[in-house]
Amino acid sequence: MKFFIDTANLDQIREANDLGILDGVTTNPSLMAKEGIKGKENILNHYVDICNIVEGDVSAEVLATDFEGIVREGEALAALHSQIVVKVPMIKEGIKAIKYFSNKGIKTNCTLVFSPGQAILAAKAGATYVSPFLGRLDDISTDSLTLIHQIVNIYSIHGFETQVLAASIRHPMHIVACAEAGADVVTCPLDPILSLLKHPLTDIGLEKFLADAKKGQ
Ligand code: G3P
After folding, report:
1. What is the pLDDT of residue 53?
2. Ligand 1 within 6 A of 61 CB?
3. Mean pLDDT of 46-63
4. Who's near 24: CB < 8 A, 6+ residues apart?
5. Fewer CB atoms inside 10 Å of the end CB: C or N, the chain?
């Protein structure tokens, strides 16, 4: 399973990358706004800065919602850097654009996916990644993990090559459950990644080992 970080914060991207376990980055317009990145040129430069930190795929989201606009924006994003993956919303025009990008060999991430039917369409269109959102389903009292299991199962039965990129991850157990469900990628903020490190018995055990080692010195 690949680990992506879901942020536009360069320091957090560097911190995750320094751990040696980072495979890529996802961003969205809200995450860019959170970092105060405004204006077309600054936004494009920021994507390049991210690509220069990590080695893997970097999702950059289009803002247009019509086919021509999505294609225009997506081609400009893809031309920025070889690591860029064009992130396209799960809408009718988006599916058409994903098919267009797929035919041109441009990688895509179909975002805002909340149902198995949407995931089938994304795969049929040739999306590189499909992004089901866990946290936002949980927020409306819907079991998000059932969706991950359904998509993984459907893709396996039919041999779809689209990778399941579990998004809207809110806590470490989401990550573990997605791994168990067979998601290809999880994208999460830095905190849930770092939370995977934590166990009180690790801390207690290390403290005792170090104390005992001191007695022997
Ligand atoms: O990048 C999309 C997704 O991960 C956003 O997560 O927490 O805003 O639902 P969240």
Report:
1. 97
2. no
3. 98
4. 2, 4, 5, 54, 56, 57, 58, 59, 83, 185, 187
5. C
